[in-house]
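User: Let's play a game. I give you a shape written as tokens, and you guess the letters that built it. Ready? Here's round one.
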């Protein structure tokens, strides 16, 4: 890599990109995490190996001006306190994941669910103590509102649905899509939507039917343009819910019963009921045509307080500040 940007090689730039982004969330990185999450910003370059990344971290005089290392983590100089923050949040995440697994264990009995993934900060065990638990759900074709209705009902009956001021350790059900609308290349809020890129990469697919996690990734192959070293997450037994013969029989029976004309009628009825109950603010934002709020027959996305643009601005500002120091 002979070409230089602001006296940096491409690899040095990409390493900085990655560490700067995670610094926004007080999250130092190991060498392996820098490799896996190496952010190129969409630049067309050849992949870099773990050995190359480890070497540049050890030898680059430019990076030594900006980065520090301790306890196996790399971070921006003056930010050593985020090691403690990361470890504290890791311990906090365990309780939140237990709640998530309990909810998913119940939801696996419902029909038409193809995947339930934990998302946002908890997906990489970096959630704050007061934060909620975000789910991303993929449903069967033509069963979006049916699924949302019964998922919401089940989580509400468990007493763990987020609503109003009840947020901490509650399940947030604000993002659903159907199996025919899994290509998220239409969702970026800007030309470089760094948050969406890492949101996709960090998804934690705790419950998957019919290999839908891989099917979802196949629809979003563009992710590799920004994260060339990305590999699908392998979920340990502790943080996933598997199907058993009994619940397979239950949901297959319900799939069959509600999969025909009766299910179609029920889907239309539940769509009308849910859209009538949606706030006017949600409907207005959906009409605007951006990707913060989407209300359609194939996707429901209710991120009224979408902070992706804010994170992008923070990322660009911090990156510029660091470049000016070189």
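Assistant: Ready! My guess for every position:
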């Amino acid at each position: 890599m002979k070409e230089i940007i602001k006296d940096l090689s491409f690899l040095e730039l990409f390493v900085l990109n990655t560490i700067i982004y995670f610094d926004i969330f007080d999250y130092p990185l190991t060498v392996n995490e820098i490799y896996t999450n190496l952010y190129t910003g969409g630049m067309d370059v050849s992949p870099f190996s773990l050995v190359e990344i480890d070497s540049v971290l050890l030898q680059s005089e430019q990076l030594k001006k900006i980065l520090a290392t301790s306890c196996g983590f790399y971070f921006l100089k003056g930010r050593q306190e985020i090691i403690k923050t990361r470890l504290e949040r890791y311990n906090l995440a365990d309780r939140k994941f237990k709640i998530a697994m309990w909810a998913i264990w119940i939801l696996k009995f419902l029909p038409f669910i193809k995947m339930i993934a934990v998302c946002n900060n908890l997906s990489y065990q970096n959630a704050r103590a007061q934060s909620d638990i975000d789910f991303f759900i993929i449903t069967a074709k033509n069963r979006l509102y049916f699924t949302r209705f019964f998922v919401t009902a089940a989580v509400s009956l468990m007493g763990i649905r987020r609503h109003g001021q009840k947020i901490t350790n509650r399940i947030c059900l604000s993002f659903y899509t159907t199996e025919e609308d899994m290509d998220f290349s239409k969702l970026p809020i800007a030309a470089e939507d760094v948050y969406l890129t890492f949101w996709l990469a960090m998804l934690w697919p705790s419950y998957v039917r019919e290999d839908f996690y891989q099917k979802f990734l196949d629809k979003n192959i563009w992710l590799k343009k920004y994260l060339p070293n990305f590999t699908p997450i392998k979920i340990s037994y502790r943080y996933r819910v598997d199907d058993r013969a009994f619940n397979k029989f239950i949901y297959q029976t319900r799939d069959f019963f509600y999969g025909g004309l009766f299910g179609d009628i029920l889907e239309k009825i539940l769509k009308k009921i849910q859209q009538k109950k949606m706030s006017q603010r949600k409907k207005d934002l959906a009409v605007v045509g951006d990707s913060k709020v989407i209300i359609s027959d194939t996707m429901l996305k209710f991120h009224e307080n979408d902070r992706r643009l804010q994170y992008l601005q923070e990322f660009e500002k911090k990156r510029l500040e660091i470049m000016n120091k070189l």
